[in-house]
Amino acid sequence: MSVWTVLLAAGSGTRLAAASCGVKKQFLRLDGRPLYWRALTAFARCPAVAGIVVVFPPDDLETAGAELEALIATRHPGVPVLTAPGGARRQDSVRNGLAALPPHCRRVLVHDAARPFVDPALIGRVADALAQGKRAVIPVLPVTDTIKEVSGDTVVATHDRSALVAVQTPQGFDVALLLGAFEHAGETFTVTDDASLVEHLGQAVHTVPGAPENVKITNPEDLPLLASTLPPAVPVTGYGYDVHRYADPARPGKQPARPMKLGGFPILGAPEVLAHSDGDVLLHALTDAVLGCVGGGDIGQLFPDTNPDFDNMASGVFLSEALLFARSRGLEITHVDLTVIAQVPKLAPHNHAIRVNVAALLGLDKSQVNLKATTEEGLGFTGEKKGIKAVALVTGWRHAAAK
Questions:
Q1: 284 is in an annotated binding site
Q2: 304 among annotated binding-site residues
Q3: Is 190 annotated to bind ligand?
Q4: Are 148 and 155 in contact (CB under 8 A)?
Q5: Annotation-wise, does 244 bind a ligand?
Q6: 399 annotated ligand binder
Q7: Mean pLDDT across 136-154
Q8: Cα separation of 263 and 25, whole Å?
Q9: Where does a divalent metal cation bind (predicted)?
Q10: Is 381 annotated as a binding residue?
């Protein structure tokens, strides 16, 4: 069952203030974006997560919320993202985040934005335990150091480390149980993790394996961890071009006539095209452009029209396979510029739908996809309404460490 996440980015960061020039740690930059964004996108990639509430310091709520909106507009994480103001204590911030959850939410994950390296696998372990009926779940790691209890500078006890664990976030809870723990705690005691509230209520807290890389940015010596985690990258450009002839009902061709699609979107009433696959000239050009970014050859090498398996194949399949190939070689697409050259049909009524569809196929925001249409003023075979052309230009980054 799906869960929501409360992402705590409301701390004051006093221990890092001097080393960070006063910038609160949740707003330090990691790969060019605020620290909390890394954790946010990790939760968004976990299939169990239905939405996220980000809790910001009250004084920063307006400015941080505006930056968050800009980030979402550039690259939407794929789940709803809400904001809430923090409180005086951690538990107050958590409670404010819970208040922002949709009424139907029954399970919640609470995570510190200062743990930016959390991954969907760890998130999934906590969410799965909740789905199996556990009402409070925390990720833990074994303690490897000997732990001694001291008074002043004198050791008073040595604890059995086999019975000790180090606790991480995200911590998962039944929402009703966590709210009940807040009511029970009132203002009488302050805790450093949310599971402690449930323990004070006398309820069981269960564990799942944590992740060593899920470290918390707390002290100045942790700041080197925020050096860019991306391998060196170089800008790349890929160019694609494709042509398809229109079917002439009076002169049947060797290839079958296909209803016109552009960018995977059907163009009703348009001339049919001759093609072995579904004949989407725009996606064919785009596939070649993607391959061009990584020196991957062309669409004919990967999907030859002599292979009967590709008969009437959806061109989105070709693009998807090319994307997998290119991404395995380090490609990150940042923008796509497309041009369709045809006398007929008129594409203005379909421009928006084609852009949205292409953006979805590429996993981009529609603002990263541009589409233009033009004619050749009656010249050439397109001007004589005998066919259609498409040109695609893909720009992006190729991470040098990828093969």
A1: yes
A2: yes
A3: no
A4: yes
A5: yes
A6: no
A7: 95
A8: 43
A9: 242, 244, 284
A10: yes
Mean pLDDT, residues 32-43? 92
Q: Which of these three, 198, 226, 254, is where a domain ends?
A: 226
Helix (H, G, I), strand (E, B) or coil at 140: strand
CATH number of the domain where residue 357 is located: 3.30.1330.50
Domain identity same for 243 and 392: yes
Cα(9)–Cα(63) distance, integer angstroms: 13
In sign, the C-alpha dihedral spanning 99, 103, 109, 115 is negative
- The strands making up 233-245's β-sheet, listed across from edge to edge, are 233-245, 387-399, 331-341, 369-374
Quick one: 161 and 42 in the same domain? yes
Burial (Cβ within 10 Å: 0-12, 13-18, ≥19) of residue 292: buried
383 and 365 fall within a common domain: yes
Claim to verify: residue 58 and residue 207 sit in the same structural domain: yes
Count, residues in the chain: 403
- pTM (2 decimals)? 0.59
377 is in an annotated binding site: yes
Which tokens is 113 given? 């934005």
Whether 194 and 73 map to the same domain: the answer is: yes
**Where is 158: in which H helix or E strand?**
strand 154-159
Residue where the block lists tokens 């705690």: 185
Instruction: Spell out the long-range contacts of 162-165 with Cβ–Cβ below 8 A and sequence spacing 24 or more.
Output: 165/140, 165/141, 165/207
Q: Is 189 annotated as a binding residue?
A: no
Residues 31-47 have a mean pLDDT of: 91
Domain interval for residue 177 = 3-226
d(CA 254, CA 274) in angstroms, rounded, equals 8
- Does the annotation list 276 as a binding residue? yes
Write the CATH number for 137: 3.90.550.10
Query: Does 251 share its domain with 358?
Result: yes
Considering the chain, what is the average pLDDT of its residues? Answer: 90
Of 182, 210, 226, the residue that ends a domain is 226
Q: How many domains does the chain have?
A: 2
Same domain for 216 and 259, yes or no, is no
Is 303 one of the annotated binding-site residues? yes
Residues 82 and 34: beta-carbon distance below 8 Å: no
The dihedrals phi and psi of 3, each to the nearest 5 degrees, come to: -130, 160
Q: Are residues 61 and 157 in the same domain?
A: yes
Placement of tokens 């500078």 in the chain: 153
Q: How confident is the model at residue 400 (pLDDT cuts 50, 70, 90)?
A: low
Bridge partners, residue 392, by sequence: 240, 338
Q: DSSP letters of 349-374?
A: GGHHHHHHHHHHHHT--GGGEEEEEE
> Is 74 annotated to bind ligand?
no
**307 marked as part of a ligand binding site:** yes
Q: Are strands 49-56 and 3-8 parallel, antiparallel or unpaired?
A: parallel
